[in-house]
């Protein structure tokens, strides 16, 4: 039975629940915009990291380098798309 | 077909390994899709016209959905673990649990959409609501597709057993499901929580 619930999976799950509760702080407490956004960014990216490394086994095959390069490149692409849009339409620079 | 028995079933042939790599490349393209949706969402934030804005969000259904998806991501991880132990029965149980939680998610999200529309927030009301429904809907459509995909995986595994072929399909499905959970975390944080701040 214990075999069916490996420790690092259970830890990953508990960790993701904790991160969700921490992220909830931004609606429960009256934080400044900067502090709230910092909390959301940190918890969201940590959640993504937990999924990627602990659950998706990203690093276990011989294609490890290709997979990580590909994902990191696309995350970079996503950040450029989102920040670029914010820069033009919201921050008005 | 050369089968390398030192590796888990889903990686045991070269074709299997390359299929998993190919799926990672597809997932990276999906990151680009959701990035453009998020970018548009941020650009349209506050452009609500005469319609309602983020005040339509309610915390309870969002929390139910978050816990349903987080737990389903955990159970599908356990399904892959059971598959590697060669325990077909446990694997199918965990897969079934995953899909049941997926259904809970879909049910709550559909009900939430009905509530929104009831409150006068439709996809045609404003630019903001158009992109809100598009972003949530694209993710919801992925979960719906994943539900049927998972159903076919369950049928195939119970029919043909654990072979390099079916194990590979199940593993790729697990990657897809974890990815949907990651996208949901970003929706939860930057659409719902940020909107309710």
From TrEMBL, chain A:
Protein's cellular compartments: Cell membrane
Transmembrane annotation, as ranges: 12-29, 35-55, 67-91
Annotated EC: 1.10.3.-
Main location as per UniProt: membrane
Keywords, alphabetical: Cell membrane, Membrane, Oxidoreductase, Transmembrane, Transmembrane helix
A GO term for molecular function: cytochrome bo3 ubiquinol oxidase activity
Alphabetical list of InterPro entries matching this protein: Cyt_c_oxidase_su4_prok, Cytochrome_c_oxidase_bac_sub4, QoxD
Chemical reaction(s) catalysed: 2 a quinol + O2 = 2 a quinone + 2 H2O
Function of the protein: Catalyzes quinol oxidation with the concomitant reduction of oxygen to water.
NCBIfam families: QoxD
Family as reported in the entry's similarity comment: Belongs to the cytochrome c oxidase bacterial subunit 4 family.
Protein name as catalogued: Quinol oxidase subunit 4
Upper taxonomic lineage: Bacteria, Bacillati, Bacillota, Bacilli, Bacillales
From TrEMBL, chain B:
UniProt subcellular location: Cell membrane
Main location: membrane
Reactions catalysed, as given in the entry: 2 a quinol + O2 = 2 a quinone + 2 H2O
Keywords carried by this UniProt record: Cell membrane, Membrane, Oxidoreductase, Transmembrane, Transmembrane helix
Residue ranges crossing the lipid bilayer per the database entry: 21-42, 62-83, 90-108, 128-154, 175-193
PROSITE patterns xrefs: COX3
GO cellular component, one term: plasma membrane
Major enzyme class: oxidoreductase
Membrane topology classification: Multi-pass membrane protein
MF annotations from Gene Ontology: cytochrome-c oxidase activity; oxidoreductase activity
GO annotation, biological process: aerobic electron transport chain; ATP synthesis coupled electron transport
Pfam families xrefs: COX3
UniProt domain Heme-copper oxidase subunit III family profile: residue ranges: 1-196
EC code(s) of this entry: 1.10.3.-
Family that this chain belongs to: Belongs to the cytochrome c oxidase subunit 3 family.
NCBIfam families named among the record's database cross-references: QoxC
Role noted for this protein: Catalyzes quinol oxidation with the concomitant reduction of oxygen to water.
PANTHER family: CYTOCHROME BO(3) UBIQUINOL OXIDASE SUBUNIT 3 (PTHR11403:SF2), CYTOCHROME C OXIDASE SUBUNIT III (PTHR11403)
Protein name in the entry: Quinol oxidase subunit 3
Source organism: Peribacillus asahii
Source lineage: Bacteria, Bacillati, Bacillota, Bacilli, Bacillales
Name of the encoding gene: qoxC
């Amino acid at each position: 039975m214990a075999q069916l619930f490996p420790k690092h999976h259970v830890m990953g799950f508990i960790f993701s629940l904790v991160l969700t509760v921490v992220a909830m702080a931004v609606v429960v407490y009256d934080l400044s915009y900067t502090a709230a956004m910092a909390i959301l960014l940190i918890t969201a990216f940590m959640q993504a990291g937990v999924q990627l490394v602990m659950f998706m086994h990203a690093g276990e095959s011989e294609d490890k380098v290709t997979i990580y390069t590909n994902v990191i490149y696309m995350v970079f692409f996503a950040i450029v798309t989102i920040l670029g849009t914010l820069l033009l339409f919201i921050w008005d620079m | 077909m050369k089968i390398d028995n030192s590796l888990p079933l889903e990686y045991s042939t070269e074709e299997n390994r390359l299929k998993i790599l190919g799926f990672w490349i597809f997932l990276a393209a999906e990151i680009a899709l959701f990035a453009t949706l998020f970018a548009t969402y941020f650009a349209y934030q506050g452009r609500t016209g005469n319609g309602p804005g983020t005040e339509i969000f309610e915390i309870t259904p969002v929390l139910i959905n978050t816990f349903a998806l987080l737990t389903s991501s955990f159970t599908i991880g356990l399904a892959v673990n059971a598959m590697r132990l060669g325990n077909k029965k446990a694997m199918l149980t965990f897969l079934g649990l995953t899909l049941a939680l997926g259904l809970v998610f879909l049910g709550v999200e559909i009900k939430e959409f009905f509530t929104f529309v009831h409150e006068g927030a439709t996809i045609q009301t404003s630019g903001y609501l158009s992109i809100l429904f598009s972003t949530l809907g694209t993710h919801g459509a992925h979960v719906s597709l994943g539900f049927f995909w998972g159903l076919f995986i369950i049928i195939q595994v119970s029919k043909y057993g654990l072979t390099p072929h079916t194990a590979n399909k199940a593993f790729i499905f697990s990657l897809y499901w974890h990815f949907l959970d990651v996208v949901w975390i970003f929706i939860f944080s930057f659409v719902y929580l940020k909107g309710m701040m």
